[in-house]
Amino acid sequence: MKERSFTKRLTSGLVPAIPYLWLGVFFLVPFLIVFKISLSDPAIAQPPYKPVFEWSDITGFFSALDVENFELLTQDDLYFRATLSSVRIAAISTILLLLVGFPIAYGMARAPERHRSLLVALVILPFWTSFLIRIYAWIAILKPEGLLTQALTGMGLISEPLDILNTEWAVYIGIVYAYLPFMVLPLYATLEKMDDTLLEAALDLGSTPWRSFWTITVPLAMPGIIAGSLLCFIPAVGEFVIPDLLGGSETLMIGRQLWSEFFSNRDWPLASAVAILLLIVLVLPIVIYRDVEARRMETRP
Amino acid sequence: MPPPSRQSASASVGAVRRAFAPWADPDAKPLIRFENVTKRFGEAVAVDHLTLDIFEGEFFCLLGPSGCGKTTLMRMLAGFEFPTEGVITLAGQSLEGVPPYRRPVNMMFQSYALFPHMSVEKNIAFGLRQDGLPKSEILDRVGEMLRLVQLEKLAKRYPSQLSGGQRQRVALARALAKRPKVLLLDEPLGALDKKLREETQFELMDIQHELGMTFVVVTHDQEEAMTMADRIAVMDHGRIVQVATPGEIYEQPKTRFIAEFVGDVNILEGHVQGQENGLWHVKSPSAEMPLTIDDPDEVLHSGQAVAIAVRPEKMVVQREKPGPEAVNVLTGEVWDIGYLGDWTVYRIRLETGEILRVSCANVSRFVESPIDWDEQVYVTFAPGAAVILAE
């Protein structure tokens, strides 16, 4: 009896601790290491920064840390422009994703019930192929002599080859293509739960279908819209592969900046500072979302 | 106490006398007219060549078992479905191709369909805002509706914070706010418990009377229909079987289906022997002597197979053998007794094996030597208490 209550207490104490344990080992500890590196100075050594932590000289270690790298980030406007450009590209991509994803999710939620699980499976299907390979495939489609140009000239719509690859447009296409499931699935989840009679009630009360969509469907789909937008916006800000492969050298994004600081310049401390900056930029929308959600819950339990 | 043997000229059907009866006036123009309307969903026929008039100011009930087409009929009126054949007119104008948002008809949904992201006020104001009314007028009208359904204190609440009864009132207020020509109510009381349902029935009647609006109610609950309606249309398999006042539906059912669907009934089968002094004689295996039935409107011929329908409360159960002059005497034994407080229900088993249901109002608190289980008893009913239904 006593033993059972002990195991019970153990499990009831441990189960909620699992996420904290995971986050502690795989997020908090690495974050603290990165944060520490961001306060260090670059060095031609292994590892390529100093000071390196040593028990024998703790005061010396702490006195060697400074915020020089963060100062540099504010002085050189490259990082500011890269952040701004990333946020802009991610925001435009998220809007495009909403425009493309909403009709898809809406159509799925309206499909006959027996087709729905198949449609969900099809939306996830691209994940079966590596993300990297799918982005490479887009190069073949978008390049000047690629499939898109061939198709459009074949139809007689254009005479000149399209110059999309290595522009921001290619980045938008890549992000919308790659992130679509992350937008569609949360939208579908909320739209599927929506009661159709609400729309009938709106029509009955004199609201046209178009107005009913904006006054009933969109507000009720808001949790899905917000969840899908965050799921797309946050990784899109830090995206590296898509701008690198499709965006050409002109496209400025903070993820690429981080990569070049780290690998090209071997300036780990500065790269770490950029990573911290990126984290701050991304935490902000999450905090805002949580605040909005909490206030909504307050007025409507 | 000899029961009245014939209907007198001043007698009205059922206990309620109605001054409002536009359907009896041949010159009255109906507000809503279904003309030979058919609705098919693929192969299935939901509404089958149906013709029906509903008049202004009527409280009209569509009554029938589930799947009889009553909901489809209402949805065609609201504009969510369109007839496959036939025409529906409202105030003389065809509704063909008119979408729901352009019809002067509002509906109260069975599930209430309240907008969960809007407060009570906003829900009620929704329809008014679509009409682009000035803000002050919307405010006035919402206030008026809140008073009508007694929800002034809950104006700022959200639907999730309301009880079932309160939600029902919000749904009603929202549907009434635009002052539609016709209010459609789809099982309006279905989700309420029995006590609340009874109270709300009378409230709905008061509101309808106060606003002078035409109400069309869909229900499967015959008690609800009987209480509220001016007229009831009983539907079965996409057709209307009878349209009449509740009294007529109950006391003069046209078919066996109606007699059995509305209220309880005892059915005795038999064959017509003939007519004498306006009274029909019917030979039934259930009774020793031919039954005498006063149903002058029926046109029957000798030898015709008929069913005789008698309501349980119109039969009398007694221990003493009735005198030789008594008509319509059945003999049997008490099979079951159910004491309901206001009524006592006896189930009497006849010699033929049929079980009759006889109910008796408990008018006094104490009964001297009440009828007991397994007792030999006589059941009688007056000639005017029974209805002949042609088979």
Give an account of the 3D structure.
The complex is a heterodimer of chains A (301) and B (391). Chain A is an all-alpha fold and 301 residues long. Chain A has a domain of 191 residues: MetI-like fold. Chain A is built from 15 helices and two strands. Chain A has a two-stranded antiparallel sheet with strand order 1-2. In chain A, a hairpin with a 6-residue loop joins strand 1 and strand 2. Chain A is globular and about 75 Å long. The model of chain A has no long low-confidence stretch (mean pLDDT 89). With 391 residues, chain B is α+β, with helices and mostly antiparallel strands. Chain B folds into two domains: 237 residues, P-loop containing nucleotide triphosphate hydrolases (Rossmann fold, 3-Layer(aba) Sandwich); 127 residues, OB fold (Dihydrolipoamide Acetyltransferase, E2P). Helices cover 21% and strands 32% of the residues of chain B. Chain B has eight helices and 20 strands. In chain B, the strands form four sheets. Chain B has a six-stranded mixed sheet with strand order 6-7-8-3-9-10, with helices on both faces. Chain B has a five-stranded antiparallel sheet with strand order 13-12-11-14-20. In chain B, strands 15-19-16-17-18 form a five-stranded antiparallel sheet, with no helix packed on it. In chain B, helix 2 runs parallel beside helix 4. Chain B is globular. Chains A and B meet through helix 10 and helix 11 of A and strand 6 and helix 2 of B.
